[in-house]
Amino acid sequence: ETGVTQTPRHLVMGMTNKKSLKCEQHLGHNAMYWYKQSAKKPLELMFVYNFKEQTENNSVPSRFSPECPNSSHLFLHLHTLQPEDSALYLCASSQELLPGGDGYTFGSGTRLTVV
Amino acid sequence: EDKVVQSPLSLVVHEGDTVTLNCSYEVTNFRSLLWYKQEKKAPTFLFMLTSSGIEKKSGRLSSILDKKELFSILNITATQTGDSAIYLCAVGGAGTALIFGKGTTLSVSS
User: What is the spatial distance between Cα B108 and Cα B110, in angstroms, rounded to a whole number?
Assistant: First the structure.
């Protein structure tokens, strides 16, 4: 375990469904991130939160809606997704926005399949 | 536009071989370059480099940064099957988050 826990590990959803991904860290980190990892593409930054305030939305479609109720929890709410949204969604955390010696700590990801 | 380019994208070697993975970057206000290893799902941190010419080592892995030529290499000596993974390079610049390359998929056969 890395200290960053993501649930569920796998998710299959229809295009009309609504679901949520959850990320939890108890490392005392102040910054949390959502990244999307698709085959043969670089990790794509989606959202950044610092001290539970959103600092970056990387032009993500509105069908993805993040929520950060506190510095330890991060959610990604999903609705009316498209098949091209199928990917591995990774959550990461860091002590501060510009990571120090240990970089980011990643969760194991949620493998999302949209059918 | 900031970008990170890794090469090769995939590599197959035999156990015992030495491999060199490359990462070049173009980023505004460079701060740091990081290497990660991704075996199954969660990428794990390997190295963070901020200064040119200073080699970082951890066992059979080592890495060095050249800020003049804007690249870094990751060396793995005496490779083992457990080194099979995707190796990710990421750069921190003026933005609030790391920018990642596509990764190099390394396969080590016994």
Answer: 7
β-pairing, A87-94 vs A110-114, is antiparallel
Q: What pLDDT sits at residue A100? A: 66
Average pLDDT, stretch A32-39? Answer: 94
The four Cα atoms A83, A87, A91, A92 give a dihedral, to 10 degrees, of: -140
Per run of 10 residues, the mean pLDDT along chain B (length 110 residues) is 94 97 94 93 91 93 95 98 97 87 96
Chain B residues touching residue A105 (CB < 8 angstroms)? 45
| Structure tokens given for B99 | 């920018």
Name which of B56, B91, B87 is nearest B70 in CA terms: B91
Q: Nearest CA of chain B to the CA of A84: how many Å?
A: 18
Mean pLDDT of A39-63: 90
Is the Cβ pair B44, A107 closer than 8 Å?
A: no
